Amino acid sequence: MQNVNIQQLQEVATNIRKDIIQAVNAAGSGHPGGSLSAADLLTVLYFHKMNIDPKNPKMENRDRFVLSKGHAAPVLYGALAERGFFPKEELLKLRHMGAMLQGHPDMKNIPGVEMSTGSLGQGFSTTIGMALASKLDKIDNRIYTLLGDGEIQEGLVWEAAMAAGHYKLDNLTAIVDFNGLQIDGRNDDVMTVSPIDKKFESFGWNVITIDGHNMEEIINAFDEAEKTKGKPTVVIAKTIKGKGVSFMEDQAGWHGSAPNDEQTTTALDELGGVK
Amino acid sequence: MTKIATRVAYGEALVELGQKNENVVVLDADLSKSTKTNGFLQEFPNRFFNMGIAEQNLMGTAAGLSTCGKIPFASTFAMFASGRAFEIIRNSICYPKLNVKVCATHAGITVGEDGASHQALEDLACMRALPNMVVLNPADAVSAKKAVFAMAELDGPAYARFGRANVPVIYDEDFVFEIGKGVEVKEGTDATIIGTGILVAEAMEAHETLKAQGINVRVIDMHTIKPIDKDIIIKAAKETGAIITAEEHNIIGGLGSAVAEVLVENSPVPMKRIGVKDTFGESGKPAQLMEKYGLTAAHIVEAVKDIVKNK
């Protein structure tokens, strides 16, 4: 935790949240709820933890992040733009015809996007290949992936979890954005996925549960994951869907709808206003 | 005539490829003895990943490996590759145009006794519909081996179909396999049979039978279903005036459909399609099933005679 300025990270996270609101508003569609819930997690990855270079997105031996819950593209785009992978103006063209920023991440056209995702479970599965490749080539990098808690209802997630445990992929860290909500309501009402920790544990994972909005806890979890040898680590991050915007918090309805102009102004005010 | 299953050639080709290119990795789903990837496993255990009975994750993992510079050959039975893992192939491999080779064995009705659940008869149609995907269906062991080498040279996704049953070797070792180029294996002017996979051998047999009856049919091996060789189809239509396609696949969506698309847009001529007539198969010996489902040389002969008579 040395040399980490928590306050600065919090400011970055707030900026990313503003990016999310503005981008989704400009698009007129998109997924603000699950983007806002993951803003603190991505902030720590992109501004503290990962070895990456915005000027050289394909840098050899870089750390890699895959957004398996691909619908939360706005948070990834916000983090990449804030980190300097592409101009922030692109955010306001999100989902527009001909724009770089597709509705879900597109690795072919967006600098810094490591895998095209959007169909749930698939991003996680591809990180198994990335982690295996690093092991094969004896590259000392880390692979991160963010999953939704609804996403882990997909069978493919457990195929991937099984393989990561089997191959002892200790260079892999999965993060579950555990906000408790999916499109049709509470996870446990739609399809029970809990206990998540015991499921991962039984597949041979090291499990860490944290408050996904607490910067210190997030940093400590990623540090512990890095030190854990012989098994992959999953960080179960308890979050609030829509975090930071009062009328969006813990509301399933904000999974996939865009704020109108008035709501956008209110949201940005709550986040400290536009600079 | 020597008979070898194309899956055997696939396994041998992988070992040769592994020696030449250290980026080649192989993934399987608990079928390495059947898909013949076990030869690669023995030679290069570090570069072989058994993903267990989990075909979706097999494809996703292959996609991830390819983003790190590996050339993954992802193997399982055609049914599970093209069917169960379809969406992963679509979204994680074809959409980002990743360098993954999906190699599917035990395709078609000649998987035999296992029955309909294991007889992939729609894989070519499914794979053909995916943007960026190259679709190969080699006719014999020589061509299968060369198809594997050609795939490795290609930068992007490819699907190759291999069979379980022993089939005649029709090419000699100096055969040149070029992706996207059909091969005229028999000359003829009265009609053209365009075959793919193991039906090329049947088409060649039909050619001999017809020759004895005074009908000279051209035979083309269309080992690449996509991109299809338009030029060779149009030329055959113009020069022979009638086309018969032959495939061990549902009559809908495979070679016959691909050829028909080219013909109607360029050079319409009378056409007939040999294939499984939009039905599921059943258990049986490969030869019995070929007979029952209308896929033998004799069936091709009948189709040719019919079309020549009415042309």
TrEMBL record, chain A:
One GO MF term attached to the UniProt entry: metal ion binding
Pfam families: Transketolase_N
InterPro entries: THDP-binding, Transketolase_CS, Transketolase_N
DNA-binding among keywords: no
Swiss-Prot/TrEMBL keywords: Metal-binding, Thiamine pyrophosphate, Transferase
Matches recorded under Gene3D superfamilies: 3.40.50.970
Domain of life: Bacteria
Keyword Cytoplasm: no
SUPFAM superfamilies: Thiamin diphosphate-binding fold (THDP-binding) (SSF52518)
Cofactors, names only: thiamine diphosphate
PROSITE patterns listed in its UniProt record: TRANSKETOLASE_1
Domain Transketolase N-terminal: 11-272
Family: Belongs to the transketolase family.
Protein's recorded name: Transketolase
Upper lineage: Bacteria, Bacillati, Bacillota, Clostridia, Peptostreptococcales
UniProtKB/TrEMBL annotation, chain B:
Keywords (A to Z) from UniProt: Thiamine pyrophosphate, Transferase
Taxonomic lineage from the root: Bacteria, Bacillati, Bacillota, Clostridia, Peptostreptococcales
Coiled coil: none
CDD domains: TPP_PYR_DXS_TK_like (cd07033)
Similarity comment: Belongs to the transketolase family.
Domain Transketolase-like pyrimidine-binding: 4-169
Pfam family, one: Transketolase_C
Species this chain originates from: Anaeromicrobium sediminis
PANTHER family found in the cross-reference section: PYRUVATE DEHYDROGENASE E1 COMPONENT, TRANSKETOLASE-LIKE PYRIMIDINE-BINDING DOMAIN-CONTAINING PROTEIN
GO molecular function, one term: transferase activity
The keyword Ribonucleoprotein appears for this protein: no
Name the UniProt record assigns to this protein: Transketolase
Cofactors required: thiamine diphosphate
Transmembrane region(s): none
Entries under InterPro entries matching the protein: PDH/Transketolase (IPR051157), THDP-binding (IPR029061), Transketo_C/PFOR_II (IPR009014), Transketolase-like_Pyr-bd (IPR005475), Transketolase_BS (IPR020826), Transketolase_C (IPR033248)
